[in-house]
């Protein structure tokens, strides 16, 4: 485990938190999902000059290609956005995907997988598998594809790895998991030890989300919903990044420990003072820029060996 020291002043982090709270503060139990999605897209959207963006259809699903200037067109990062399986899109994550394309010199395909409340588990996992197959059908080599995701999307990326491995299918070259949701049982001690400093998540919220995602009869222990419960042997190299202020810190720590014990090459980075998916705030946080650069270095190193 690498512990990365904090570079940004504390007030910069607090300013980001206040911006996030300003969005959440407009929502209550009666807020329609479509309104939440529109608000979140508007909050996070940033145009990035010099990056080519093309919307495409992956079967019945929407997706977006982004490609920074000079990117190697044979390399693809398949990206799954976060948003608690309820919101988020290629719009909300456009800036982050553009930054990743530039850092890793690759094309990025952001998938708009099906969301709650319209679609429950296993719909997102099915969509992730469909996107993987779509890339292979278009001639991209598995060794030139990596997968990544943040929050719920990080859990989805991990679930895709498990599903492919169990099916005996080709695996991607690597995976990058940002503040990944890997355990709907919320067993990690960090749900207690970080409860007072995490401004976004808590144990009750994650457990409630799990009930929505899995349904009344769903089992939070199933590995495709909670990848921490999966058999991790045979997975490709992993990079996990997580903030030290997150209640879900141990979702990453325990997953990394289990992967390492199973012989998987894994790097875990814990960023001091950082909040959930801090990588989405590069204008305010030096850590966000540093983290994306480290992701780029990780992926470039993986692809240089293939």
What descriptive keywords fit this protein?
single chain; 306 residues; alpha/beta; Rossmann fold; nine-stranded mixed β-sheet; 9 helices; 9 strands; 38% helix; globular
Between the first and last Cα atoms, what is the distance in angstroms? Answer: 25 Å
Q: Write down how many β-strands occur, each being a DSSP E stretch of 2 or more residues.
A: 9
At the first level of CATH, the class is Alpha Beta
Q: Please name the fourth-level CATH homologous superfamily.
A: Alpha/Beta hydrolase fold, catalytic domain
Going across the biggest sheet, name each strand in turn: 1-9-8-7-6-4-5-3-2
Could you name the ranges where pLDDT drops below 50 across 5 or more consecutive residues?
none
CATH fold title? Rossmann fold
- Tally of alpha and pi helices: 9
CATH architecture: 3-Layer(aba) Sandwich
- State the major sheet: 9 strands, mixed
In one word, what is the shape?
A: globular
Number of domains: 1
Q: Radius of gyration from the CA trace?
A: 18 Å
As a percent range, the share of strand residues is: 15-25%
Estimate percent helicity. Answer: 25-40%
Q: What's the helix-strand series? A: EHHEEEHEHEHEHHEHEH
Outline:
The chain is α/β, with parallel strands linked by helices and 306 residues long. Helices cover 38% and strands 19% of the residues.
